[in-house]
Design a protein that fits this description.
A 3-stranded antiparallel sheet has the order 1-2-3, covered by helices on one side. A hairpin with a 2-residue loop joins strand 2 and strand 3. It is built from 3 helices and 3 strands, in the order αααβββ. It folds into 2 domains: 36 residues, no CATH class; 52 residues, no CATH class.
């Protein structure tokens, strides 16, 4: 079975795969994603550690760093940090 046929089968249920809708939304908002530097960490293992390291390095270098991680360990506010400080 080819992945293309699997993905096409979702259209029967009203699923419209692709980026066209989000690209249209972003264009109507003035493409804000073009002016915000973002590092997106993805993968199977180590995302939390990589994000923690990068956040610490960039904060120490004077950059303003926002970080979202999930799940939290102790308190849900630690999921969202600004410059290494959990939100209040």
């Amino acid at each position: 079975m080819k992945i293309a046929s699997v993905l096409q089968s979702f259209q029967r249920f009203g699923v419209n795969l692709g980026l066209a809708r989000i690209e249209e939304l972003l264009a109507s908002l003035g493409n804000p994603h073009h002016s915000v530097p973002i590092i997106h960490v993805a993968g199977t293992n180590g995302k939390g550690s990589v994000c923690a390291y990068l956040s610490a390095i960039f904060t120490a270098a004077g950059y303003q760093v926002g970080r979202y991680t999930s799940p939290h360990l102790v308190n849900w506010t630690e999921r969202i940090c600004l410059n290494e400080q959990p939100i209040s």
